[in-house]
Specification:
single chain, alpha+beta, Serine Threonine Protein Phosphatase 5, Tetratricopeptide repeat, 4 domains, 9-stranded antiparallel β-sheet, globular, disordered N terminus
Length: 504
């Protein structure tokens, strides 16, 4: 087949000109990039960075939805972007406190008052955190400082009222709570703390009404439903208590306390299967939260299932000890007259230090001990204490301690950690070597924390399992809390009687 030669296309002069201009433009851009006069066209366009104000608005929205955890995270982002704005610290301190993270709240609150020492709002938030951590005198001082700085700030009076109630100063508590309501009748905290004062005074129906008014202002706060449910329980209004705790659990599904109280309320009306389901759910949500283990153990105990009750009571007691150790705030060494036992420390403090977390997992607390009087006899002495809050083991090291007369000894004391009899936990006499050094390993257990009924009921479980060797220490621990506890005394009698009875 004959193929004709293909006709060649002629170049369009305008097309050639366009290509030449495009090449020249490319060379020009490349030259500018090399000179760093413009950025590379192949680098992604930068996205705008969120501002602290943006996170602050997000936090407020999440709080209104009842999402306290989300609000906390948003405020933390905002502070990282603007660490000098005290107005970001105040709501975050409050939310951390409400979430049960009082120690973190205190640390942040202290930063806030250092940042703005004349801020009444910062001092009030710090006072609230102190109170929820059990440091009531410090809470009252901080809240009074807040009132002095900002007499028109309603929340300062509200937090002061709560602290006064915890101190048993009822008249002052009522007056402060009423002042908060007068200053701002739309304040959730003013109504909530007024309810708290009434609750502490035993006026449960009045407390319910105050909490109801708080929820009318902000209907999505799980912790206020918890307050209301607790007072319905005191009024023996089981149906409304269940509804309040159920609502709290719906608003905050990760709140183990709500699930625990819901289960415990069902247990109080002997609906043990339903109670068990909620209590097990509470444990799944927070395996380190002690109360549901004790409540679950009770449901087994009432059904005489001692094998299942025992491990749950043991876990409740173990976690209660751990929780108490986590609340330890400090450690100090005093000089004491040598004796068999020590009830309270003398005023002769020679070394002292605050306990702080020594690891990110918040398991070990440590304190560096320094002289209480830098110019005194112990000015060269030093020490260190490390406490494992999980196991209770602690190590104390002392150096360059001056020798004492034969009738005196050194004794170490924990601040914020008591024995079962509510007296301060101490090390006992510390035998310092001739070189002024000492290193000892001791155990902070048993300590005040477990419920007395958990101790003696676990002892009775062991009695019914014919294991009195395990029961005696539990009965004795209960008697340290209350020397007249009839259940513990009866448990000891039962064990002694069983041991005295010949085995057939």
């Amino acid at each position: 087949m004959y193929l004709r030669p293909r006709k060649r296309r002629r170049s369009n002069p305008w097309r050639v000109l366009f290509l030449l201009l495009l090449i020249a433009a490319g060379v020009y851009v490349y030259t500018l990039v090399q000179r760093q006069e413009i950025g590379s066209p192949f680098v992604p366009t930068p996205t705008p960075t969120r501002s602290a104000y943006s996170y602050r608005m997000e936090a407020k929205g999440l709080y209104l939805q009842g999402d306290l955890k989300g609000a906390i995270a948003a405020y933390e982002h905002a502070i990282r972007l603007d660490p000098d704005d005290v107005n970001l610290y105040v709501p975050l301190v409050r939310l951390l406190t409400l979430e049960g993270r009082a120690k973190e709240a205190i640390k942040l609150g202290q930063e806030a008052v250092e940042l703005a020492p004349n801020s009444g709002q910062a001092w009030a938030a710090l006072g609230m955190a102190y109170d929820w951590d059990g440091q009531v005198p410090e809470a009252i001082d901080a809240c009074q400082r807040a009132v002095e700085l900002d007499p028109a700030y309603a929340e300062a009076y509200a937090y002061l009222a709560e602290a006064y109630a915890d101190a048993g100063r009822w008249g002052e508590a009522l007056e402060a709570a009423q002042t908060a309501l007068d200053l701002d009748p739309h304040s959730v905290d003013a109504h909530r703390d007024y309810g708290y004062v009434l609750e502490a005074m035993g006026n449960w129906s009045g407390a319910v009404e105050a909490y109801r008014q708080a929820l009318e202002i902000h209907p999505s706060l799980a912790y206020v439903y918890m307050d209301m449910g607790r007072n319905y329980q005191a009024l023996a209004d089981t149906a409304n208590a269940i509804e309040a705790f159920r609502r709290a659990a719906e608003l905050d599904p990760d709140r183990a306390e709500a699930l625990d109280q819901l289960g415990w309320t069902y247990a109080s009306i002997q609906e043990y299967e339903r109670a068990q389901a909620y209590l097990e759910q509470a444990i799944e949500v927070d395996p380190e939260y002690a109360p549901p283990y004790g409540h679950l153990a009770y449901t087994f105990w009432t059904r005489r299932n001692y094998e299942s009750a025992i491990p749950n009571y043991e876990k409740a007691i173990q976690l209660a000890y751990r929780a108490s150790r986590r609340d330890a705030r400090g450690f100090y060494v005093t000089v004491e007259v040598a004796q068999d036992d020590y009830a309270y420390p003398s005023p002769d403090t020679v070394l002292e230090g605050e306990l702080e977390w020594a690891d990110r997992d918040e398991i070990r607390l440590s304190a560096t001990l320094r002289p209480a009087d830098p110019s005194g006899q112990w000015r060269n002495a030093s020490g260190r204490l490390v406490l494992n809050t999980a196991t209770g083991e602690y190590t104390l090291t002392l150096e360059r301690m001056p020798p004492l007369p034969a009738d005196q000894v050194y004794v170490g004391w924990f601040e914020g950690l008591d024995r079962l009899n509510s007296l301060p936990l101490h090390t006992g006499p510390l035998r310092v070597g001739t070189d002024g050094a000492l290193q000892v390993r001791l155990t902070a257990e048993p300590v005040d924390g477990p419920r007395i009924e958990h101790l003696y009921t676990l002892g009775l479980c062991y009695f019914y399992m014919a294991r009195c060797e395990h029961a005696y220490p539990l009965f004795e621990a209960a008697l340290q809390i209350d020397p007249e506890e009839v259940n513990a005394l009866e448990g000891i009698r039962l064990c002694q009687e069983a041991e005295a009875t010949p085995t057939p």
